[in-house]
Amino acid sequence: IRQRNLELGVFPAAEALAPSLRVFFASRSGGVSDAPFDSLDLGLGTGDRPSRVRENRRRLIAALDLPARQLARAEQVHGARVAPARGGRIARGADGLFTGRPRLPLAVSTADCFPVILFAPAERALAALHAGRTGAAGGILDAGAGEIARRFGANLADTIALIGPGICERCYPVWEKTAREFPGAVRRRGGRPHLDLAGFIAGRLVSLGIRPRHILRSGLCTSCDPAMFFSHRRDGARTGRHWTIAWFEEP
Q: 122: which of 176, 181, 201, 230 is 20 to 30 A away, CA to CA?
């Protein structure tokens, strides 16, 4: 969808499953950053000018009509810790957030890793996870699902999972040692293992009790589409970051 000149992605099928849930993921268009961060770079510490990143963030938050000082984020250290969300704060040492508070937006920053949103509609419990290779193997999905189940009594069989854009298997060659950490999620191309990280994530969510029909994928690859997405694997360290933002409304 297009909002205030920003191209934002949504999950249309999620509306029928959870009408109160709101999830948007940003593309790279509509911002003020110059190449190679053109143009909606949302990541500080990438080499982009901080003033431009702040303006890009302001534009995204305004496009979603959110209170800027309420946005909650995790530090994202490629780990598996999940922390309670605090509006306007960064959870240090965490790669995921959870909340039972309506209209508290949770943001996940990515540039090939997968943003994963978990929402239990009946219990009104939300988690936003940064699921890269290390975090996925280390248990970030288990931690996120476990927190909403323990703290809010979420029934995982009725929980909805949304997997945003990230790197596809074709674009993701890995070393043999890494491949052994993901049994069943590796395909060989030209003799080299390639990791289907989105498939691994979906399979792990099913093993945790989430029904396959409640797992929705964007189907978009950050590496395949340079016009739409930043990609660390494709472009190296000097590239931007996307945000996926999720919250739920009052009933």
A: 201
Among 125, 146, 32, smallest CA distance to 81 is for 146
Query: Peptide bond before 109: cis, by omega within 30 degrees of 0?
Result: no
Q: What's the distance, Cα to Cα, between the start and end of the chain in Å?
A: 24
Identify the three-state secondary structure at position 10.
coil
Residue 212 phi, psi (nearest 5):
-55, -35
Provide the Cα torsion 106, 107, 108, 111; round to 10°.
160
Mean pLDDT of each 10-residue bin along the chain, 251 residues long: 93 95 98 98 96 98 93 97 97 98 98 98 98 97 98 98 98 96 94 97 98 98 98 96 97 80
Q: Please tell me the distance from the alpha carbon of residue 162 to that of residue 219, in angstroms, as a whole number.
A: 11
Residue type, 178: T
CA dist 141 → 62, 69, 83, 203, 232 (Å) = 30, 27, 13, 11, 22
Count of residues for the chain? 251
Q: Which residues contact 188 (CB under 8 A, 6 or more apart)?
A: 194
Q: Residue 4: what pLDDT?
A: 87
Sequence-separated (6 or more) residues with CB below 8 Å from residue 44: 50, 53
**What is the model's pTM?**
0.97
